[in-house]
Design brief:
The chain is α/β, with parallel strands linked by helices. It has eleven helices and ten strands. It is globular. The structure holds adenosine-5'-triphosphate.
Amino acid sequence: MNSPLLTTRGLQAFYGDAQALFGIDFTLAAGELVAIIGANGAGKSTFLKSLAGLVRAPRETIRFKGEPIGGLPPGEIVRRGLAMVPEGRRLFPSLSVEENLLMGATAARKGPWSLPRLYALFPILAEKRHAPGTSLSGGQQQMVALGRALMSNPEVLLCDELSLGLAPIVIREIYAAMPTITGEGMTVVIVEQDVTMARQVSQRIYCFQEGRVSLEGNSGELTREQISQAYFGIEAAHA
Ligand code: ATP
């Protein structure tokens, strides 16, 4: 692997007294698409939020391009080149599609993504550019949420459950954009409950279980048995 773009070492996370992550070691190389899978409550969202500065982390436990970034304010992390597509899209309800997209451009990094590029990627958003974001279908809202993150021209895109609540055909439509996104040199981390989709689109997979990494490997080499054991735990896999 080339020198890693992003690493975490022994990353822990807490909500008050409750510990959600118990020492995550994670490595991301430039240009990779890595999927994080795992059951509800395994800590996947907490991990992405820690990377994005939304959950506190000790400075040295997260390094991006050689610099410690743990616990920096979220805006500073976006400026450095990490952008998150939050679970549940989180559009601004009073703003139009285009205004929502432009909110992502406030970090003003240089790069390939602009309104015309996004409208070429998702033509339906050009048609609906003046509509309120919340009047769109779930899939279209997800395109806006993805587009808003791309508008900050990140080096690393963090996607939390893009497929949540969407029909399979819509999920495929969203993921069909990934080769274009990675083709622009973007490095991507996806949290994905749909294991089949995660295996199809990623080069490597991390499986989380109860706040720990239970399995890590190349997506094409991990067996179904390995994944289900790491996902559900040994007892469930043998049940
Ligand atoms: P899901 O697929 O359900 O989103 P997940 O793998 O993303 O699951 P997290 O949302 O990261 O899991 O949750 C990890 C643990 O942290 C769980 O035990 C959860 O109950 C707890 N947790 C998550 N968010 C909070 C919060 N805001 N306050 C307190 N506990 C939380």
